[in-house]
Amino acid sequence: MKHRKWWHSLLLYTVVIVWSFIVLFPFYWLLTTSLKKPLAVARGPRYIPFVDFNPTTEHWQYLFDEQGETTLRHFRNSVIAASGSTVFSVLIGSMAGYGLSRFRYRWKFPPWRNNDIAFWIISQRFLPPALFVVPFLMIYSALGLVDTHAGLIIAYTMFNVPFAVWIMRDFFDNLPTDLEDSARVDGATRWQAFVRIVLPLSAPGLVSVAIFSFVFSWNEFLYALMLTNFDAITLPVFIAGQNNTRGVQWWYISALTLTAVAPVVLIGLLLERFITSGLIAGAVKG
Amino acid sequence: MQQSNAQPAYIEKTGNGTREDRVMKQVFLTPAVAVLLLLSIFPLFWSLGISFTDVQRGSAAATTTTDDGTVVEDSGFLGLGFHATLRNYARMPEDERLLTAARNTLFYVLAGVTIQYIIGFGLALVLHQPFRGRNIIRVIFLMPMMMTPVAVAYTGRMMFDTSIAPLAQLLRTISHTLGLERPLFIPWLTDGSVAPWTIVLIDSWQWIPFMTLILLAGMQAIPEDIYEAARVDGASSWQILRKITFPILLPISATVILIRGLEIFKIIDVIVVTTGGGPGSATESLTMYIFKTALTFGNYGYAAAISYILLILVIIFATIFLAAMRYLTPRTSG
């Protein structure tokens, strides 16, 4: 690499530092606010614990002790809805991705080939969810699916499958067929070859898809708001509901928000490379 | 970057395949197709039908209001057996709130993608060089994207609070230092003409990193010798950016703008938490108006009709961009 001009480095590090500050400061603010006494919040910005305010853990105790049951219930709902839909999305998505990658489809009606089918599938991902507000409300209440985990899992699976198919198809396209071919020669059925040879080789793709499905379902708001009332309410809806109940209690909301984002941000920190590669596969090839 | 353009190796290249393969072929694809037909296509048509009725909330035994205002108890299941009407579409041009919501939504989309693309591109350009701590930066970039928009919105509301936020204090300090008569005061979320911008800013905080990561990946996929050749020919940095980097990234740019644009069309969570659609309905988006029409007012027919307006807007937006992408993509890739 050639020597960089000094002002290039200056620009680079200025941008890096400024942007990191813009991203990280809100997280710092959430954390400190969750440790402030209500008065310390109300009396204008206080920045550094022990210096301009005395930290307290009372809001966290309230969240996990007094309110523990409520918090846990919403947390559990989020976990169930997100992991349930992740399992189905990964399964259905990898099957369809494999099919579209390995077989040649010629539909009669509509007269579509593989690429058309794949495009149709991914296009479903971009339909505005508002379109489904009315039909889902009516169908769900007719089927008794309102406010159930199953209802949320079904709705999220519908949203995650298109992206899962898209990523997995791309992944299988780049996966050599030699190994599954030799397994076939050795007498394995197509399904056995898929489950025992192809899927284990596709772990990185599957992890990407699983992360995306999980994070999307975890963060989803509109469906959860519309299809749950009490039992199945997920964290985002619960947080949004803190708006008007007793005035905005920033200290409590900060703790709650951190609790809600901690799992997914942790996933982001630990599995960064799967996410980046999945994003790029989804966008660059799209 | 793992950008092989491998052609898919279809199994039955040489013939029709075995009988097992013909069965398995359907087994693999059918679940996904079934899910989409059942949960996406079917509700879509259903909703289209509903948009031509006066269905109100009230499960099985719903009520319809006839044109002369009498309420008829109808035992139609799921809205079946309701009288067809064009009223939902006919009343749209007079619905000020709908027009505001449509205008707001278009504003969010256009302002959002513009701001996010320009800043995202700039950041990618700066970060497109090796430096220490690059991996950490990538992780930092991912953090906002992983958050639920509801949490982002609360955080934004805290940041843009006019009394307790550091930003407000900064503005106060600046006014004080400059000795201004009237201290700088920006009603971030309470003024109808400022609040839409604040909402765009909050959305941008979350999604600029997305633009940056994708564009950065695109930049890194550009072969170094193209730059070398340009530099040998004496091209300036600005010329390289304008004549090489930017044109090569155009297809990717169109894709990320399309993806972001389609996502912003769905915006509701940020608005619900920051302004609740207010002041008045100054920040309401179409999705939010549809949601309120259906859930708060219980007017299913009208909500379904508006959702089709939203769909038409989305289709227009997507069509323009797909056409642009096809036009901009180099034809060499076949």
Q: Can you offer a commentary on this structure?
A:
The complex is a heterodimer of chains A (286) and B (334). By secondary structure, chain A is an all-alpha fold. Chain A has two domains: 1-66, no CATH class; 69-284, Orthogonal Bundle (MetI-like fold), CATH 1.10.3720.10. In chain A, 73% of the residues lie in helices and 0% in strands. Chain A is built from 14 helices and no strands. Chain A has helices spanning 6-33, 38-42, 58-66, 68-102, 114-125, 133-143, 149-173, 178-185, 190-201, 203-219, 222-227, 235-240, 250-270, 272-284. In chain A, α4 (68-102) packs across α10 (203-219). The longest helix of chain A is centred in the first third of the chain and has 35 residues, at 68-102. Chain A is globular. The two termini of chain A are 33 Å apart. Chain B is an all-alpha fold and 334 residues long. Chain B has one domain: MetI-like fold (Orthogonal Bundle), CATH 1.10.3720. A two-stranded antiparallel ribbon of chain B has the order 1-2. In chain B, α3 (96-127) packs antiparallel against α9 (237-265). Chain B is flat, with a radius of gyration of 26 Å. Chain B starts with 18 loop residues before the first helix and ends in a 6-residue tail after the last helix. The model of chain B is unreliable at 1-6 and 73-77 (pLDDT under 50). Classes of the chains: A mainly alpha (286), B mainly alpha (334). At the A-B interface, α1, α4, α5, α6 and α7 of A face α1, α3, α4, α5 and α6 of B.
